[in-house]
Design goal:
single chain; mainly beta; 3-stranded antiparallel beta sheet; globular
């Protein structure tokens, strides 16, 4: 995974912890977290404010071929109170995580 600076088109961060292709990637609305989902069902959470430092790696129970990730809008008055969902293959399962604790 490579992170580029749009203005300069330079690579600012690069990671190689995935063994299969990345299928979905999403930043939270505050630009604090980046979540990447891999074809093998692994989910990687990165601290976008600290050079995309990996925070946590999780694996879905039944690794789907296609996964997607999306963040909720922040709660009014609390910009850091967000959730993110990881949707499995064909929409047959979804796990919703707290973006602070990473618990389901």
């Amino acid at each position: 995974m490579r992170i580029f600076d749009i203005d300069t088109t330079e690579v600012v961060d690069e990671f190689s912890q995935f063994n299969k292709p990345i299928r979905s990637i999403s930043y939270d609305n505050c630009g604090k977290l980046l979540v990447a989902c891999c074809e093998d069902g692994s989910v990687s959470i990165h601290n976008a404010a600290r050079h995309h430092l990996p925070i946590k790696m999780m694996h879905l129970e039944l690794p789907p071929e296609f996964v997607h990730v999306a963040f909720t809008e922040p709660t009014l008055g609390d910009q850091y109170n967000q959730k993110f969902g990881v949707l499995g293959e064909y929409g047959n399962n979804i796990n919703i995580y707290d973006s602070e604790t990473f618990l389901i």
